[in-house]
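Input record (one chain):
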Amino acid sequence: MNQIDFNNKSILITGGAGFIGSSLAFYFQDNYPESNVFIFDIFRSGEKFENGNLKSFGHYKNLIDFKGQIITGDINCFNDLNALSDIKFDFIFHHAAISDTRVYNQELVMRTNVNSFYWFLEKAKRDNSCLVYASSAATYGSLASPQCVGKEHPENPYGYSKYSMDQIALRFISRNKGLRIFGLRFFNVYGPREYYKSKTSSMVIQLGHQILSGQSPKLFENSENIYRDFIYIDDVIKANILSATSENSGIYNVGTGNARSFKDIVDILQEELNTDLNVEYINNPYSGYQNHTQADISLTQSSLEFFPEISLEQGIKMYIPYIKKHHNQSID
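The corresponding structure, as predicted from the sequence alone:
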């Protein structure tokens, strides 16, 4: 791995008021205090999609104590994006997107996620900057585990938009030798600063808050046989940084390589919170539900030297103080 001193580098983080984006911003602030970090985010307005979920998860509370620069804007608005045109960036971390898998307005999802991506690719080319962007395990749909790059079957507009971005990125890489572009397919990320994702936050924090309220934790029927690759936010930040220091452009899975059940989450939470509540099993109302995800990270290991360090048990233990802090806290 090439060692990079990010001090005195200009760094753009889109979606920087969101979960992963804000965590990345504080990584740079804490470890490279002389780095010049710009956050571009639309922030939340209270507007909702037809499914009742918020249109934007960016929240100022994720950025309290952030000392960098903030530009408010919409990646759908090229006038807003042009506010970035005169700034030369060394690194672009593109995390802004419609990330709700239950938004079925194809035109809106594709316009937001895909059209704007061309702008950031061209910006990276003009600035000769490294571009790291958020792809997703949703590109795999319900394909059997382990999920491997090159074998995709998206089953919702969001997954297809990320698949499209990956294909665009691969073509751009092949036509622009030397330009460093990395698509990171995040699996189930959990950890501090996700609270403001509301209903789309991880089941770790949702179940934790149910338990803290003395409620029976609610799981879908057959949850002991529903598995996910849960990855803690610190390992996700690590994958972003490793990408930025690599010469091996491409699309990479970012997971632990281990699948765990939702029942495992409940058991670990109850042990950490010293509770013994009975689980309530409910019907699963969703079609196209992934029953098993497990990232094949062999390519990520060999090309990015990415080796996740935090087990589900360790991650939940570290997460408990944040879960407790935000229990019954206003989400506005």
